[in-house]
């Protein structure tokens, strides 16, 4: 297996594992919006120290600043904000299903707007992972048009994140430097959005603070850089499809560690997603 694909799968595993820790953080007195802010903000001192030790120049080249801000705000912060807004109107399962339409969106955008040849295997893989997501997610909650639109927008913004990183050339920036700026801008954006509605809750238990720090390090120093390297080596379409290993990880670990139910439809969905991943690997 090529190293780019390994990076993407490892990144997806990290992103799929951290929600297991997040459940303990939530029970310690906080919410998703606060954890999103902490996930980005808590890693900044460590990231800065690593950059200084490695003597990585933090200055941005001409034109890079605008691209980094666009990637961080639209591709990262707005994606997460829209998803959390959707949770307030529709079920978490339905919101997640609509969010995870993004692999198919990426493949279609690459084919239609960038005239990339996807190949039969990649197109079949995109369809398989989309069907798989629909199967193993709980979509029984009552829907709301606004919530559904927000969830779809979260997937569209994340598709933008993957595509823009690939097409703008930002994937060639040093991965730790890009991670630092994304985390910095994302933390400020989420903070400003959450502050007026008093959605930030910092009265947390000591265990919750520790686990929030662990999540921040795992995502910011491992998950995000691995994803950036994966996009660099494999491109946007493959990155979008392989990132669907994330919900599989969350569902399977949730069943194994937390005793969460896993239906036959869920198992079939996981199998279809894995089949899509295999098609990408052998394509």
Describe the fold and architecture.
Keywords: Membrane, Transmembrane, Transmembrane helix. This is EamA family transporter. It comes from Candidatus Avimonoglobus intestinipullorum. The protein starts with a helix and ends with a helix. The mean pLDDT is 86. It has 13 helices and no strands. It is an all-alpha fold.
Distance between the termini: 11 Å
Order of helices and strands: HHHHHHHHHHHHH
Total strands: 0
Sum up the overall morphology in one term.
Answer: globular
- Stretches where pLDDT falls below 50 for ≥5 residues? none
Mean pLDDT: 86
Helix amount: over 70%
Structural class by SSE content = mainly alpha
- Number of helical segments with 4 or more residues: 13
Major sheet: size, sense and barrel closure?
none
Provide the gyration radius in Å.
18 Å
In percent, how much strand structure appears in the residues? under 5%
Family: Belongs to the EamA transporter family.
Keywords: Membrane, Transmembrane, Transmembrane helix
Pfam families: EamA
Protein name: EamA family transporter
Give the SSE map.
Elements: H1 3-27, H2 32-41, H3 44-53, H4 64-87, H5 92-99, H6 102-112, H7 119-136, H8 145-167, H9 175-194, H10 206-234, H11 236-242, H12 245-258, H13 264-282
Helix pairs in contact: 1-10, 1-12, 2-9, 2-10, 3-9, 4-8, 4-9, 5-8, 6-8, 6-11, 7-13, 8-11, 9-10, 10-11
